[in-house]
Amino acid sequence: MNTLLAAPPAAKGHLIRVSGLVQGVGFRPTVWRVATAMGLTGHVRNDAAGVEIALWCIDAELAAFRQRLCDGCPPLARIDAIETTDLEGLPPADGFTIVASAGGAVRTGVVPDAACCAECLAEILAPRDRRYFYPFANCTHCGPRLSIIEAIPYDRSSTSMKSFVMCEACRAEYENPAERRFHAQPIACPNCGPRIWLEAEDGSVFAGGSERVIDEAAALIRAGRILAVKGIGGFHLACVATDDDAVMRLRSRKKRDGKPFALMGRDLR
Ligand SMILES: [Zn+2]
Ligand SMILES: [Zn+2]
């Protein structure tokens, strides 16, 4: 039997614009992974409106790509719209890449800070992990965003983390697409990131690493002292909620006679 084979459809250039909460949440790495897994060429970058993807593929692949992108949307991301237009020019020779951000009028949303994810928490509690007891551990699924952003597009150079130079180990994670910290802008570790310390009222500094500092801070709170915990967004004043004396002292110092304080707990129980 004779079979007539039609010429395979030619790959065309597509410009895909994704808007929503797509910066600083591991969106570009997700695009990279999907495109690379499908063997497509092009690039992805942040721009002021969100994320811009240039992709060379046939129409069927474009539909599949969009579907896989929506299915694989990272936990902190939210896709509001995907717009596709034709793109002239030839596909790049070097596969699919993440390229430098473009400027322009800012229209994209910014993600709020997110609590430590389960994977980062597991690392913080693993004695052999290099982020053991490191309170500033974060990844593309968690950590600070809005509190550290100085400008959009969201790149490390536009955040308050720009003054911390990544160590070799962090840079390797940052540059490895298979890593949870691929392009995680606030990436940090005890060797290169912010550190914690504990100071008394007289300015004397408690000696010890993260683990001892946190233990000592917890012991002080348990003993009824009031701590000013400096975080990325300012100071939290903290005391033990079950100690009336400590709470009353905090109320009088804050001049807050009746207004409720926020309560922190491990879980609802
Ligand atoms: Zn995390
Ligand atoms: Zn580091």
Quick tags:
alpha+beta, two-stranded antiparallel ribbon, elongated, 3 domains, 19% strand, binds zinc ion, 269 residues, DHBP synthase, five-stranded mixed beta sheet, Alpha-Beta Plaits, single chain
Write up this protein.
The protein has 3 domains: about 10-100, Alpha-Beta Plaits (2-Layer Sandwich), CATH 3.30.70.100; about 110-195, DHBP synthase; about 200-255, DHBP synthase (Alpha-Beta Complex), CATH 3.90.870. By secondary structure, it is α+β, with helices and mostly antiparallel strands. It is built from 6 helices and 9 strands. The chain starts with 11 loop residues before the first strand and ends in a 15-residue tail after the last helix. The radius of gyration is 24 Å and the shape is elongated. The longest helix has 13 residues, at about 60-70. The site of one zinc ion has 8 residues, from α4.
